[in-house]
Specification:
Blueprint: H1 20-42, H2 52-57, H3 64-85, H4 97-107, H5 110-122, E1 128-135, E2 138-145, E3 156-162, H6 169-172, H7 176-183, H8 189-200
Antiparallel strand pairs: 1-2, 1-3
Helix pairs in contact: 1-3, 4-8
Length: 202
């Protein structure tokens, strides 16, 4: 059975960019709800003790009667577990190391990457995510609807941002662009570097 992961920082640690109330509700209510519904769907199946990312890689093998629930709520659990770790207090700025070099090589500059990543979040109609992903050792930007994960498409997420309204509405109301601008102040590039190194080993 899946459990709610502990945040690696306090609920108010990302202030003023991501507010304490949003973080508290997002983690303890929204993420917990995904886990509860996922656990209810997979109880007694072979997926009960599998790593959630392994389940998502084989989403089409999940029985049809629970596949949609697992896609939505398993995706929600995986995406949020990832999301909490790619943010950190006293973070942001430009990336260095291998991931920084790869971003500059792929997009031409960090500013160009920032523009394209932001646009992926802004142009996602309704609820979803914007991602920096690796596939066959190449970086690209994509967005997914609802709680779909790049893992379902065989891609490895390096960085992701939640653009569901519940991720920003209390602080930014309907101003998704302001939220996405704020997100760049809390990106944990050390975690993104580890994600990139992991992707390169595949």
């Amino acid at each position: 059975m899946y459990m709610l992961p502990k945040l690696p920082y306090d609920y108010n640690a990302l202030e003023p960019y991501i507010d304490e109330q949003t973080m508290t509700v997002h983690h303890t209510k929204h993420h917990q709800a995904y886990i509860d519904k996922l656990n209810g769907a997979i109880k007694g199946t072979k997926f009960e003790n599998m790593d959630i990312d392994e389940v998502l890689k084989k989403i089409n093998d999940v029985p049809e009667n629970i596949r949609t629930v697992v896609r939505n709520h398993g995706g929600g659990h995986s995406n949020h577990s990832f999301f909490w770790k790619v943010m950190a207090p006293n973070a942001g700025a430009e990336p260095h190391g291998n991931v920084g070099d790869a971003i500059k090589h792929t997009f031409g500059s960090f500013e160009k990457f920032k523009e394209e990543f932001t646009n992926a979040g802004l142009n996602r109609f309704g609820s979803g995510w914007a991602w920096l992903v690796s596939e066959h050792e190449k970086l690209s930007i994509m967005s997914t609807p609802n709680q779909d994960s790049p893992i379902m498409e065989g891609k490895t997420p390096i960085l992701g941002v939640d653009v569901w309204e519940h991720a920003y509405y209390l602080r930014y109301m309907n101003k998704r662009a302001d939220y996405l601008a704020a997100f760049f102040n809390v990106i944990n590039w050390k975690e993104a570097e580890e994600n990139y190194k992991h992707a390169m080993k595949k």
